[in-house]
Design brief:
The chain has 2 helices and 17 strands. It is mostly beta strands and 278 residues long.
C-alpha cells in the first residue's frame, strides 16, 4: 500500500468513476479522518497507476509472552461465521475490498477477525469479538463491531487473518489514525492505518487488503443447492460442512474446523483455516 495522501482525480468509465463502481458493493464508504497522521491511499485508488500494488504487510507479534506466534497470544481457531461482533462500546463498521496485486477484486477470501473488548480484554473462554466471513463476488467485506479498548503495551488495533482459496495465510492488524500509542508501539505499521470517520455516535472505517496474488481471478459460482456432508465421505465442492465433520481427500482424512460451504479450490490440504488433518 502506498503512504501517499488520497488523490481526488479518478479514471472514469462511461462517466462513472472506477472508484464509485467499486464502492457500489459497500454501503456508506467513509471519508478519512486525519488526525496528525497520513492515512495510506486505498488500493482501489492507487491501482489506477497500472503498476502492481504492494501486498498488505504481514504483521509480527509483540504480545508477550508468545512473541514467536505471529498472531499474538489470543488467536483462537473455529470462530463463528458472522460479520457482526456484538458487544458494548463505540460502534464501528470496517469495510473494504480484497484485491490481487493487479487491483482485481478477489471473491471468497476468508477473513478471520479478533479483537479486544471495550476494556482492552480478549475473550479466551468463548468467542466474544471473534468471527470470520468471506468476501462477496465483488471482493467486498463488511465487519460490524466496536472500537477496541487499549491492550497493555499496544496501540489500538484489530487482528485479522486472510486466506484466498489455495493460497497462504496472511496475518496482519489494522490500526486507527491519531492514536497516541502509534508512535511507541513497536509492531505498529503506518501502511496498516484505516481511513476512519465519525458517524453519529459511532465510527466508520475503510481498508483495502492486497494479497500477494497475480493473474486474473477465476469466478467461483455459488452452488444452487447445498447438500450436507456424510461422515467420512470423500470431500466434494458445493457441500455444507459443519464443525467436526470428517471428509477424505486423496485418501487422507480431515476434520472440519469451521462451518462452511465448500468451493473448488478449497480442498482440505489448501485451506488450513477450514480443515485439519486427522
Amino acid at each position: 500500500m502506498d503512504a501517499e495522501n488520497h488523490v481526488e482525480n479518478e479514471e472514469t468509465v462511461g462517466g462513472i468513476s472506477r472508484k464509485t463502481l467499486l464502492k457500489a458493493a459497500v454501503m456508506g464508504a467513509p471519508i478519512p479522518l486525519l488526525i496528525g497522521q497520513a492515512v495510506p491511499a486505498l488500493a482501489r485508488d492507487t491501482g489506477r497507476s497500472g503498476r502492481l500494488l504492494d501486498p498488505t504487510p504481514f504483521c509480527g507479534s509483540g504480545d508477550q509472552p508468545t512473541i514467536s506466534q505471529t498472531e499474538g497470544p489470543y488467536f483462537k481457531p473455529n470462530s463463528p461465521q458472522r460479520d457482526t461482533l456484538p458487544g458494548s462500546g463505540t460502534a464501528l463498521t470496517v469495510s473494504g475490498f480484497v484485491f490481487n496485486r493487479s487491483c482485481q477484486p478477489l471473491a471468497n477470501v476468508l477473513l478471520d477477525f479478533w479483537q479486544a473488548d471495550n476494556q482492552g480484554n480478549y475473550d479466551n473462554t468463548g468467542f466474544g469479538f471473534r468471527g470470520h466471513q468471506f468476501t462477496n463476488a465483488q471482493g467486498a467485506f463488511r465487519l460490524t463491531t466496536i472500537v477496541p479498548g487499549l491492550y497493555p503495551g499496544r496501540t489500538r488495533h484489530i487482528h485479522v487473518k486472510l486466506q484466498a482459496p489455495g493460497r497462504p495465510v496472511l496475518t496482519t492488524q489494522l490500526y486507527f489514525p491519531g492514536e497516541p500509542r502509534n508512535s511507541t508501539d513497536t509492531i505498529y505499521d503506518p501502511r496498516l492505518l484505516m481511513d476512519v470517520r465519525t458517524n453519529g455516535n459511532g465510527r466508520e472505517a475503510t481498508y483495502d487488503f492486497v494479497l500477494n496474488v497475480t493473474g486474473t481471478p477465476t469466478p467461483t459460482p455459488t452452488p444452487t443447492s447445498t447438500p450436507t456432508s456424510s461422515p467420512g465421505t470423500e470431500w466434494r465442492p458445493g457441500v455444507y460442512y459443519r464443525v467436526g465433520d470428517r471428509a477424505t481427500y486423496n485418501g487422507v482424512l480431515y476434520r472440519c474446523l469451521a462451518a462452511h460451504t465448500s468451493y473448488p479450490g478449497w480442498e482440505p490440504p489448501n485451506y488450513s483455516f477450514l480443515w485439519a488433518r486427522v
